[in-house]
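Hi F.,

I've been meaning to write this up properly since the lab meeting, where we talked about keeping a consistent format for the predictions we share between groups. The idea is simple: the sequence comes first, exactly as it goes in, then the structure tokens exactly as they come out, then a line or two of notes. No screenshots and no reformatting. I'm using this chain as the first example so we have something concrete to point to.
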Amino acid sequence: MVGNIDEVFSKIKREIYNELDMTSEPSEESIFAIIDQKIMDYSMNHRLPLQVKENLKMRLFNAIRKLDLLQELLDDEQITEIMINGPDDIFIEKNGQLKRYEGKFENEMKLEDIAQKIAAMANRIVNESSPIVDTRLADGSRVNIVLPPVALNGPTITIRKFYKTPLSIEKLIAYNSITKEAALFLKKAVNARLNIFISGGTGSGKTTFLNALSNFIPEDERVITIEDSAELQLQRVDNLVRLESRNANVEGKNEITIRDLIKSSLRMRPDRIVVGECRGGEALDMLTSMNTGHDGSLSTGHSNSSEDMLSRLETMVLMSGIKMPLEAIKQQIGSAIDLIVHLKRMRDKSRKVVEITEVLRYENGEIKLNPLFEFVEEGEDEHGKIIGHLKRTDREVSCKEKFQIAGIRLE
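Output, unedited:
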């Protein structure tokens, strides 16, 4: 039956393309009208169940106007990640489980057309001469595209989907990703304008958590977000400026880096600067801005622990090309960052805050850390779900002065 429907789909699609006026941009209504007519014509001689007709109708519309088979996966809110390894191999993550998807693209050329269409949506270019691109969809979903000859399987597209409605801190509490006590402390920390770095591995939920944390920013502040691909979805801030880096053109010119945007943002009278992710030399500019009066800044970075995040920052500052003694770099980090919130994707596929650590001053050759919250695992339930809580340590907060200046009580 599936093979027959695929043949019907290909036949009707060819007929529609022959009839459509491709010199103009046909409206959705005109496309649906032609699709309905063609399906009706086919049904005159072949009986098709109503559900098959409806599925065929949407599949044809997605192929003509949207992103073909990929659109079905994007519209399924239970799917969180899509991995396309060429036209015949599609894998999805659904409800935390990785599985093969049975559908296939018509051919490699069709998949490559879709890849180029996705890149064009965000004014990016991907082709044989520039076969790798990081981009995004309109809803902020993160997309990585690799084309042949680099990708031997055929066009490879990896999409990490974002929730249509960004997760709030209340939802993260409901999912046991963080406790009420820790969330309240972070709310006070954001309001007290502490500089906070969110760390974690790939897929640990750093950007999602940054979105949730940004909801604590007071509504009357001017916030500037800086990203490689615009993913952040700040909800409550009215005075918001969103900046996105730009790759060099085919001639290798007109590149605008994260570093360029951070430097420019300092002249835009920001109350806070939010950098989506620090990956390289821009870490130096971020730390410099934190140390020059732009308190309350937020960013994320890849690491395996809070302590490891400090080492990663040292490496990223060295990548800036500016010659600085390691001691000076550590002093910059120690004086710039107030808190590190570390996230982890657990073995049961849940995402949790596992550390909230205060960064103290540089002393005796190292940056001192003060763990305030630590995740304590207590076992597993009958379904393999991890049982545990983010517990407050017995250590006191050292940077009480910032809370006092903001008129915020920690008790």
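Notes:
The domain at 169-405 is CATH 3.40.50.300 (Rossmann fold).
The two ends are 66 Å apart (CA to CA).

If this format works for you, I'll send the rest the same way.

G.
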